């Protein structure tokens, strides 16, 4: 948690300076010495808990550094948030809210899929965005306005596959992703590429799933000695409970969530 807050604090300081440098006396769309920084995060939905953590880090950074001096003038830094609801359908409208609010720069989001879905809104408006923990390469690929401060899924997928083989001597993996989720599906694919797809059983579950008993049973049937499922913290808790109920008794791995 300390590492995460440190990264968030560093990003806040960076974007504060960047935003200030884009505006003169009316930086951030304000004529009262205020710089608005957009916070594009899920406050509800599957990733609401993770989004809340990131927002707390940004709010903490803002409390530590509430002002910035530019050209001999002091500006107050104000955070303006928009809930993308962990939904690719809702993400563009949340992004448009921040564009309409006159934010010259935006932070977020927790969840790569919503970043990808909203990227064109920010790009069309010419607003730079810094992703804090969105790890799918497609977030920044081909975008000259979307940046990030975290590692990528090809890296952590490879590290996790090597960890499974070296630490647990795993030879068969069961991989479970959320259907249609860029982060979950993407990270599973990178893991399988490094682990060896011929040694993996791969399945996806639809949005709204609350019963993971069949997937855990399938992992047992497949004879998997590692269970890899990079999903939301809410889904992970249910998967872990079901694994305990069925005495799966193999290590469960996930990504940065």
Structural description of this entry:
By secondary structure, the chain is of the alpha/beta class. It folds into two domains: 2-148, Rossmann fold; 153-253, Response regulator (Rossmann fold, 3-Layer(aba) Sandwich). It is 44% helix and 19% strand. It is built from eight helices and ten strands. The protein has helices spanning 2-20, 48-64, 91-100, 112-125, 153-168, 182-195, 213-221, 233-245; strands at residues 34-41, 67-70, 73-83, 105-107, 129-131, 146-148, 173-178, 200-205, 226-228, 252-253. The protein has a six-stranded mixed sheet. A hairpin with a 2-residue loop joins strand 2 (67-70) and strand 3. Helix 5 (153-168) packs across helix 6. The two termini are 12 Å apart. The model is unreliable at 1-11 and 13-27 (pLDDT under 50).
Question: Could you outline the blueprint of secondary structure elements for this entry?
Answer:
Layout: H1 2-20, E1 34-41, H2 48-64, E2 67-70, E3 73-83, H3 91-100, E4 105-107, H4 112-125, E5 129-131, E6 146-148, H5 153-168, E7 173-178, H6 182-195, E8 200-205, H7 213-221, E9 226-228, H8 233-245, E10 252-253
Parallel strand pairs: 1-3, 1-4, 4-5, 5-6, 7-8, 7-9, 9-10
Antiparallel strand pairs: 2-3
Identify the notable features of this structure and list them briefly:
single chain, alpha/beta, Rossmann fold, six-stranded mixed beta sheet, 8 helices, 19% strand, elongated, disordered N terminus
Under CATH, the homologous superfamily of the largest domain reads Response regulator
Structure annotation, total helices: 8
What structural class results from the helix and strand content? Answer: alpha/beta
> Mind telling me the C-alpha Rg?
20 Å
Helix and strand sequence: HEHEEHEHEEHEHEHEHE
- Strand-residue fraction? 15-25%
**Which percent bin holds the helix content?**
40-55%
How many strand elements? Answer: 10
The second-level CATH architecture of the largest domain is: 3-Layer(aba) Sandwich
Number of domains: 2
Major β-sheet strand ordering: 2-3-1-4-5-6
Largest sheet: 6 strands, mixed
